[in-house]
Amino acid sequence: MMAAILCLSVLLSACGNSSQEFLKAEENQTKKMGRYREERYEGNEEFTKILHFTQLEDGTLAVFDQQNGYYCSKDKGKNWEKKEIKILEERRYNSYIGAASIAPDGGLVYCYSPYVESENGELNYQYAYLSPDGVEMELNLEGVDSTVPQFWFSPEGILYVASDNCVLYRFDKDNATLTKILQADNRIDLVSFLKSYIIICTSDTSYVYDIETKELKPDDELLNRFIKDTIGDGFLKHPSGGYSILACGTTEDNLYLTSNNGIFRHSVGGGTMEQLMEGTLYSLGDPSEVFYGMILLENQEFLILKGNVVSHFFYDETMPTVPEKTLYVFSMEKDEIMQRAVSVFQEENPEVYVKYEVGISGENGPTKEECLKSLNTEMMAGKGPDVLNLIDLPITSYVEKGMLADLDEVITEAAKEEQFFEQILKVYEKNGSVQTVPVAFQIPVIMGKGEQISQIKDLNTLVAELEKVRREKTEGSIMYAHAADYVLKMLALSCAPSWTLEDGRVAEDQVKEFLIAAKEIWTLEKEGLREEDIKKYESDLNMRTSFGDNSDDPLLQSYFQGLQNYANPGMISIGKLNSADTEFNVLCSMQKMSKEFRFQSFSGQAEKIYYPTLIAGVSSQSKETELSKKFVKTLLSARVLEKSQYSFPVNKDALEAQLTLHGAIAKEGENKQYGGFSASTDDKPISVNLYLPNEKDYEWIMSTFLDLKVPYIREGMVETAILESGKKVLEENMEIGDAIQEIKKKVSLLLAE
Amino acid sequence: MRSKKSLVKFTFLTPSLLGISVFFVIPYADVIKRSFQTAVTGKWVGIDNYKRVFENEAFQLAAFNTIKFAVICLPLLILLGLLFALLVTSVPKMKGIQSFYLLPMAIPSATVVLVWKLTFDKLGFLNLFLADIAGILGRSSIVQQDYMNSSAAFAVLVFSYIWKNLGYTMILWVVALLSISLEITEAAKMDGANRSQVFFQIKLPQLLPTLYTISVLSFLNSFKVFREAYLVAGAYPDDSIYMLQHLFNNWFSNLEVDKMAAGAVIMGSVIMIGIFLLQKLWDEKGDSK
Question: Is B57 within 8 Å of chain A by CB?
């Protein structure tokens, strides 16, 4: 036994020593110097859709933009000059350019289709090579079974062409012949040239082609895993022309890869994927960034083009290898705004490492409750996050228990620099202290004919209008709900805030009114539903879910409901307005295209409601309070919020930037088109022209947002209880009185706790 | 010599003391300390947390349900276990499959929960079975109910507890029964004692020490039933199966650590008092013999 005690004491002392050594090692490590640094060059605003970015033989950078043409930069992307080539400008003016690639000598290959349609109405693509001195030559790509092939030039200037049918060809310029290199299983998106190999990447795998033996090498498992881990079920190349992964080769057969996770070096066929840069330490980690091109300079420096910004990465020996400070940021679910804020903050504060943790990640990850418990344990142990997104967290409890720091100073400072919807920003202000700050939000809207929706002021008027609709439309859906729980969810969008009294008890009268109205509406909706309507609805729901729809309820999006309404005038639709570019612009455009489509904010039992989707808070126990507050300021900045895709920003400047993304606000009555799309609803093809928001639209959104008063965090316990019992009322004819008793019983436990 | 003996004793005790201190005494002392403080700021609040807990309706309901569960389940389990043990010991063939009785304990909770859900759901096997019976009896339909979200949930939970622990309890009883000397029972029979006299006068008194062990173990196991209740019906189940662990779980999620610490101290105290009383009762019975 003595021996055991001795062993134990030796073990404990060993642990002590090793932990001390570890700490010392860590300390030494923090003192190690040398790390990549990022410099951003706010590039050319004329870049809209970049088709190719490369470096020419003389070191000049070159970009070919689909809409604006050929640009060059001699100072690593700080300044860009347009290369005026007459024939190219003519082509650009008269034709649609589908794909292009710049040769190392400055030549250009492209495919274009004149705006004049061919006899059969299809685009008629032609292929051309433009020499560096501006002479255009027709390219004969007969044999490439493709309308818009993809082009790449090797460093030696040899042209490679990939067809729609996943075949890669080498084009011999001298005798205009095509040689088949390989047949891939999927669309070829990326081709990189190394000393001995050509690396060909699709969205799910890679191929290594040996230039000398002209044969495919065995699969590079590591590279394939990298592609799979980075892209998942997504695509390597986006419709916008950007990439999730970039690759560039060297003469040493090393491949450099860029993704949101950082920059990696991989020796083809080798067993390592060496990470040179951690993405989250730079702007690379920003999920809203899409990469257009990567160039390897001397001294292992990199230039990466993202939108119209060039990031220059170079090794700085004076930078500490590991950032000296760490800021811990947490959100229950992955949040695009948080991710962008981390990236921007990281870039602005290279001496800080921002550790962003997401509670629920992956399909087999922990549940919300398990995450919450481990978060609380961390917080109680004083090791919790410095900054939190409080959605899905017990906000009231955190505030009551003094877990959150006062952010009044931060928002006052932010409001001096930028404009905000201040009534939203300070909605949780109590006794001069602001501990929780809404950063982004959504609002409920109702869509239909102008004369219909102008009559809808509350639930009763909604029921009355739907009765009229059903009288006129005896078959089919009248509000694209199709299921009892969807009717409840739609109505809850503008009713739920009124269901609780100030002391937290259930407001019985309001709930009763809601259930009566919901039952009437469901009866009206159900009356005309046919089997095919239900099938269509289920397939829509499945399709949107399988497309990785980011929203909580795919069919509650105003974009989707709006399209249904636009295609079927006379219906009344309800949904959440989530964003400026993808939803507000679409609704405004449909309003301009059809006199029968109008939308307005939806008032049911409550009005002037908004749903915060990100609420920031700083832990009062944070050891980095100042940094945390600085992070919240970054989070609120227009630079971060102007790219929010799934919610509206609380920052007015950011909203303005979103509204003017495609051009300045048009004058009232003026319809300036910037794009369009086609869709199909109920097997009816519809096409929507996208117009710039005009002054009237701008005024509507600004005045609506300035008028918002009631923040409501969706899917709380009371709402869930009411929707569950409501479903029984609608589907199983449960008495409303019994449902209310059931709800009260469920909620009473919550209140009693 | 005496001090050397003490040193040896202390040496032998040290590892256990160390383990108990690190894993039980110190954390429990911390819980007691927290029960007199605010959750986050650690401000001393005296017995305020205890007052709040006793006044809390959810605590009252949870404590009532937990006690009710223990009061119903313990005697039921002990008696059923004994009955089955008597059956097993009297039928020789059944002894061979003793390990089979422990099977419910080996089944993971998640599997048990899945079976419960499939059985007691509104569209579960039980309702289908009852609907079939109703059909056979010529009744048009029966009212289908979601058993786990109704007052029937308590009965389901009791059944679940008994099913899971019966085998284990029975094995303990079987071991105790087999350890009773056959000579004594044979002698009693020779003296003209009938079966029930042998059981009540000879066997039962010798089973009492085992009864104490079984009672304590069953009592402690009764708290583990929360796992199934939580997995089947979530953090806010039907009132009838809302146990103290539900409450503590929800308090922790809401960072109500102060109330949770006070509640844990109360619950721990009640369990300890219960066990001490049980032990005292046994000791007294032992002494009186």
Answer: yes
